[in-house]
Amino acid sequence: MALEGNLNDFALSEILQLISVQQKSGYLELRSGNDRAEIWFEKGRIVFADQQLKPLTSLIKEHLINTKVLTPDIISRVENAAQQSRISFEKVLVSGGYLGADELAAVSEFIISEMIHGLFKWQEGTYKFDADVTRPSSPADVSLKTEGLLMEGMRRIDEWPGILEQLPSPKMWVHPGTANPDDYSLTEEEQKIIELAQNGIRLADLVNQAGIGQYRTYETVCNLKEVDLLTVSEPTIDTEETKKQIKRRIHVGRFLRPLLAFVVVVLLIAVALTAILGARWGLKQIGFSKISNAAAKRANMQQEMESIRLALDVYLIQYHYYPAELEDLVAVNLLSPDQIRDDFREQIYGYRLTNGNRSYEIDSRYLDPQFYYPQ
Question: Fewer beta carbons below 10 Å: N end or C end of the chain?
Answer without folding.
Answer: C
